[in-house]
Amino acid sequence: MWGVLIAFQNYQPFLGFWNSEWVGFEHFRNFFANPDFFRLLRNTLILAVYDLIFFFPAPIILALLLNEVRLAYFKRIVQTLVYVPHFVSMVIVASMTYVFLTTSGGIINELVASITGKSINFLADPSWFRPMIILQMMWKDSGWGTIIFLAALASVDMEQYEAAVVDGANRFQRLIYITIPAISSTIVILLILRLGSFLDNGFEQIFLMTNSLNRSVADVFDTYVYFVGITQGAFSYSTAIGLFKSVVGILLIYGSNRLAKRFGQEGIF
């Protein structure tokens, strides 16, 4: 935690923490006044909202579907298949995306061209950048995210299902009135924790998929910190950006936790 001190200094590595000049909130003021701030904020927030809308529910839906599979061997095969992408490096994922989507012989682009008569430059078109990022995340980590939800589903009392069957409830009604309420506390806790990293879009994935043609929508706080802090040596300025993200995360955790308790959930503290 001592590292956050340099956000309030004009940090010089050879002077150290205590001997560098203290500048107060100067780096924060410069960051908020930077013409790039609102563009970075917009790009970061849009990706974060897409993450909550599309990626966060994906493991829940997949876990509910797997829970309905009655053939044990088939269920294990499907679980293994959806777990494997988690262990694939993001560099490999980016390479696979390039191979599939490039206009120079990409499999998907060849299929699109055969149907529509023209190819789409997915990798360079800014309008395709965000869907591409979300789809990569869903393919890579949705299966891994089901582990927690499947564990929560395993703790549901089977007698409730049996009683529901006796009462004439169909499979969908059992899902709505028994399964989902049983894992609602797990969903809320994971949502609160996810909000804590709301402004973290993931540096590696964004960096690998960014190019000069889609940079207008691809630049986010994570990549900006790298370009400013590492390539330009602005350690104090980039630390101030990181601290700003952390403060926003803390506020979101406290706010969402209080809101969860108000609606009758346990929360995380």
Automatic annotation (TrEMBL):
Keywords: Membrane, Transmembrane, Transmembrane helix, Transport
Entry keyword annotation includes Glycoprotein: no
Chief location: membrane
A biological-process GO annotation: transmembrane transport
Topology class, membrane: Multi-pass membrane protein
Family: Belongs to the binding-protein-dependent transport system permease family.
Organism listed in the record: Paenibacillus agaridevorans
Cellular localisation: Cell membrane; Membrane
Alphabetized Gene3D superfamilies for the sequence: MetI-like (1.10.3720.10)
Matching Pfam families: BPD_transp_1
Name this protein carries in UniProt: ABC transmembrane type-1 domain-containing protein
GO cellular component assignments: plasma membrane
Transmembrane segments: 45-66, 87-108, 128-154, 175-193, 234-254
Domain ABC transmembrane type-1 as annotated: residue spans: 41-256
